[in-house]
Amino acid sequence: MGLVDYDFLAYGPNYTIGGDAAVLTTTDGFPLDVKVIDETAGVEVLDKASILTILPAVRLQASELAEKDIAAETLAGATLAYKGDWLVVSHQFLDGKYEVRLILEEKSCDG
């Protein structure tokens, strides 16, 4: 008998129904198809000085990154093609590390 994937049971339907397709390109240049939940309108994030700021973001399942052998900690500097081009600035784990929020910055036209 296999282990129960509680991550899929708890969060899978959210991503199946409300998730959008995006392409995450790692700093090594490998493009990965991922499902994200849109938070690009902005969410409250504590910055390094512990000041609450509203920043664009997306959420994705930590298990999806694990399946692709990508550690969330290595995503700073990656790019995300989703409703435009974004640069991943940082990440936060949510809900007991089942979800990862990628904090984004609009990618400038000059690269």
Highest-level CATH class: Mainly Beta
- Given as residue ranges, the uncertain stretches (5+ residues, pLDDT < 50) are none
Strand order across the largest sheet = 1-2-3-6-5-4
Mean pLDDT: 86
Radius of gyration: 14 Å
Largest sheet: 6 strands, antiparallel, barrel
* SSE ordering: HEEEHEEE
Based on secondary structure, the structural category is: alpha+beta
Assign an overall shape: globular
CATH topology: Thrombin, subunit H
Q: How many distinct helices? A: 2
Distance between the termini: 49 Å
CATH architecture: Beta Barrel
Q: Could you describe the 3D structure shown?
A:
The protein is an alpha+beta fold. The chain is 17% helix and 48% strand. The mean pLDDT is 86. The chain has helices spanning 6-18, 62-67, and strands at residues 20-25, 31-46, 52-61, 79-81, 85-94, 99-106. The chain has a single domain, classed as Thrombin, subunit H. Strands 1-2-3-6-5-4 form a 6-stranded antiparallel barrel.
Key descriptive features of the protein:
globular; single chain; 111 residues; alpha+beta
List the helices and strands and how they pair.
Blueprint: H1 6-18, E1 20-25, E2 31-46, E3 52-61, H2 62-67, E4 79-81, E5 85-94, E6 99-106
Antiparallel strand pairs: 1-2, 1-4, 2-3, 3-6, 4-5, 5-6
